[in-house]
């Protein structure tokens, strides 16, 4: 049949393919409940297989992150929601009313918002795009995606990228560790081969250390009271670990210091910095003090080219960046709405074309059976099998596509489905 | 006759507006400003070419054209840096600086030199003037980077790391641009002076001690000093950036004020 939008067409089979999404997120569920449903990335394929086995739904994508557990499918079923609840039966009562089902354009808009980071707890976070991609890949690998889900997720990933490229939603960092690293990049031309000293192995300093290593910096970890955690971090980053007593002596060779130890006194004094800067010829030195009480004396910042930021300073920058991101929300929502409308229109049209294709196929089968009964065989039968349905239907199909309004066309297609059992 | 000049000025103005609107987050990106800057540069080049073709001389026979050529060199150098480092926030200041130079230049009459000046048709002289003016443009770019350095340094020290600072190039890069531009300016000024000296020897030009030559020597010594002290221990990068800006002010003085007290034979 001509003019069928085969690229966009949902897979064949029974009609009425829809987009369906059900799950829970940080909007409706607290962390204590949410963590019961969390699936780590490595276990996603097994979870998908188990979902398919338990529910009989063969086409679905599970998006599981710290903030959400959602199932996207091209055919809705109450089994999906029940299956989610079945994963944590001990809290089923508490989960009443917390699951949010969405269908059609609502589900599309929601997935696009998730991929863009607009629905995230940390507005505009970039990690979610990778998580959506990984979720989709996991489903694809176990053969649980169809043409519709492929199109939906590929478009969602492209919308996520577009929002980040065309708005300032993710332009400025909002986490303390990323702000610290971004500030490093504002001071140093490159972080490659820069020497960074990381004191303590707290969560934020560990994240900052990971970011620095990713950018090519050389790291030395200094342990304070809990030597084990510092050694673990050093091992994870393939970096040396030293006792904190060596810190002042290493300052002259460092470009960046990130400190978050639980020491009750200053580990780096102004005098340490003065001596280090003298040896370093006054080259820029970036000090990040994430500890409470502070590990770096405030007057260490009085020296030329010494930039000292503490937790409050970084929090203030983070708050400013968050405000900048919030200003971008209307622009992002507008872009997502446009994309969702366009996708839904294309999806709807493809679904209608699918009905026409199945109707065409039904007629072709009838013609084929009648020709066989009449004794027509070989190439003539093949040619007639194609030409008769085309001659009967092409004009009607053309009119339905070009001359019928959306509602009328929908009614006609519904009637076709009803009468011919399509 | 001045259509190209005015069109170039208009596009520089639009480029400044485009970059300003982008910096104020009204425009999504700096593409519009950049497109106007490229157009302005093309028209600017066409105007210089036109002057050269009409007179048959290297188009630096009066103050107006010297300023036009100087501004053209600044845009050329800045464009090269922009391609290399991809920072757009300094574009606004560069374009405003260009307008500050070229708009007053429009008030200066564009008079051709009185009488035949064979020296202005000589390639050695063209090289001498071109390289000398180019060196001043390099010092101007160094001063622009120094301004950026001081602004960013102050903001980072004051913990005012808003979106503006995040769009500026890193401090170290601005520091490197200053050093590299000064080296580039020193080399071209040295070569320009050498070619001028060669021409003077060839033409048996006796006037070697006159204000322009003395001032050029002074500028050369200032920047040589700046280039040499850069890597010495204990030099404050902030004070160094201040000295680079001061050095450029001396350059400007040598470029403009000397015209009024020079012998008349040696202006550009």
Can you describe this structure?
The complex is a heterodimer of chains A (422) and B (268). Chain A has 422 residues and is α/β, with parallel strands linked by helices. Chain A contains 15 helices and ten strands. A six-stranded parallel β-sheet of chain A has the order 7-6-5-8-9-10. Chain A has a four-stranded antiparallel β-sheet with strand order 2-3-1-4, sandwiched between helices. In chain A, strand 2 and strand 3 form a beta hairpin. In chain A, helix 4 (104-116) crosses helix 13 (329-373), helix 13 (329-373) packs antiparallel against helix 14 and helix 13 crosses helix 15. The model of chain A is unreliable at 1-15 (pLDDT under 50). By secondary structure, chain B is mainly α. Chain B folds into two domains: 1-109; 122-268. In chain B, 75% of the residues lie in helices and 0% in strands. Chain B has helices spanning 3-23, 31-55, 63-85, 89-105, 123-157, 163-167, 171-202, 211-229, 237-261. Chain B is globular and about 60 Å long. The two termini of chain B are 23 Å apart. The mean pLDDT of chain B is 84. Classes of the chains: A alpha/beta (422), B mainly alpha (268). Chains A and B meet through helix 7 and helix 12 of A and helix 5, helix 6 and helix 7 of B.
Number of strands of chain A: 10
Question: What share of the residues of chain A lie within helices?
Answer: 40-55%
Overall mean pLDDT of chain A stands at 86
Order of helices and strands of chain B: HHHHHHHHH
What proportion of the residues of chain B form beta strands (DSSP E)? under 5%
Number of strands of chain B: 0
Largest sheet of chain A: 6 strands, parallel
């Amino acid at each position: 049949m001509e003019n069928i939008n085969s690229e966009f067409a949902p897979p064949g089979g029974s009609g009425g393919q829809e987009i369906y999404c059900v799950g829970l997120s940080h909007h409706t569920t607290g962390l204590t409940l949410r963590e019961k449903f969390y699936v780590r990335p490595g276990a996603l394929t097994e979870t998908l297989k188990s979902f398919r086995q338990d529910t009989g739904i063969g086409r679905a994508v599970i998006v599981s992150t710290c903030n959400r557990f959602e199932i996207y499918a091209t055919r809705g079923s109450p089994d999906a929601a029940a299956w989610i609840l079945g994963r944590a039966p001990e809290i089923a009562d508490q989960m009443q009313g917390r699951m949010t089902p969405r269908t059609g354009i609502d589900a599309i808009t929601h997935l696009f918002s998730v991929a863009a980071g607009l629905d995230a707890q940390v507005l505009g976070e970039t990690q979610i795009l990778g998580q959506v991609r990984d979720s989709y890949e996991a489903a694809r690998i176990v053969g649980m995606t169809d043409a519709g889900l492929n199109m939906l997720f590929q478009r969602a990933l492209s919308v996520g990228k577009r929002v980040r490229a065309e708005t300032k939603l993710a332009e400025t960092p909002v986490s303390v560790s990323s702000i610290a690293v971004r500030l490093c990049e504002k001071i140093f031309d490159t972080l490659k081969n820069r020497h960074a000293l990381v004191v303590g192995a707290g969560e934020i300093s560990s994240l900052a250390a990971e970011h620095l290593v990713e950018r090519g910096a050389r790291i030395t970890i200094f342990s304070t009271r809990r030597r084990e955690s510092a050694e673990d971090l050093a091992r994870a980053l393939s970096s040396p670990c030293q006792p904190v007593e060596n810190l002042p002596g290493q300052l002259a060779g460092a470009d960046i210091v990130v400190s978050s130890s639980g020491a009750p006194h200053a580990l780096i004094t102004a005098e340490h910095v003065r001596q280090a800067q003298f040896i370093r010829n006054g080259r820029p030195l970036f000090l990040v003090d994430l500890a409470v009480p502070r590990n770096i004396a405030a007057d260490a910042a009085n020296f030329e080219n010494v930039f000292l930021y503490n937790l409050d300073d970084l929090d203030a920058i983070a708050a400013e960046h968050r405000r900048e991101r919030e200003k971008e929300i209307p622009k992002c929502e507008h872009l997502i709405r446009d994309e969702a409308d366009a996708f839904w229109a294309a999806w709807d049209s493809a679904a209608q074309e699918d009905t026409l294709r199945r109707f065409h196929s039904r007629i072709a089968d009838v013609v084929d059976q009648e020709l066989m009964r009449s004794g027509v065989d070989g190439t003539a039968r093949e040619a007639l099998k194609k030409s008769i349905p085309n001659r009967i239907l092409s004009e009607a199909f053309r009119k339905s596509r070009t001359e019928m309004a959306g509602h009328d066309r929908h009614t006609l297609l519904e009637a076709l489905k009803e009468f011919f059992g399509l | 006759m001045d259509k190209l000049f005015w069109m170039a000025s208009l596009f520089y103005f639009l480029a400044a507006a485009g970059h300003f609107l982008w910096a104020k987050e009204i425009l999504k990106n700096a593409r519009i400003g950049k497109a106007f800057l490229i157009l302005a540069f093309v028209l600017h080049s066409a105007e210089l070419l036109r002057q050269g073709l009409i007179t048959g001389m290297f188009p630096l026979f009066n103050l107006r054209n010297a300023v036009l050529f100087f501004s053209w060199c600044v845009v050329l150098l800045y464009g090269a840096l922009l391609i290399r480092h991809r920072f757009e926030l300094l574009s606004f200041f560069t374009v405003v600086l260009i307008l500050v130079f070229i708009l007053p230049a429009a008030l200066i009459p564009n008079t051709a030199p009185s009488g035949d000046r064979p020296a202005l048709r000589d390639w050695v002289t063209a090289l001498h003037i071109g390289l000398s003016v180019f060196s001043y443009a390099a010092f101007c770019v160094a001063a622009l980077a120094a301004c950026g350095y001081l602004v960013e340094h102050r903001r980072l020290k004051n913990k005012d790391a808003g979106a503006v600072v995040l769009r500026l190039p890193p401090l170290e890069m601005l520091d490197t641009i200053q050093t590299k531009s000064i080296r580039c300016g020193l080399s071209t000024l040295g070569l320009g002076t050498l070619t001028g000296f060669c021409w003077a020897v060839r033409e048996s030009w006796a006037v070697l001690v006159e204000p322009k030559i003395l001032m050029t020597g002074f500028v050369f010594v200032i920047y040589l000093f700046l280039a040499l002290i850069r890597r010495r221990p204990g030099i404050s990068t902030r004070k160094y950036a201040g000295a680079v800006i001061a050095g450029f002010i001396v350059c400007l003085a040598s470029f403009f004020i000397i015209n009024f007290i020079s012998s008349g034979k040696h202006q550009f």
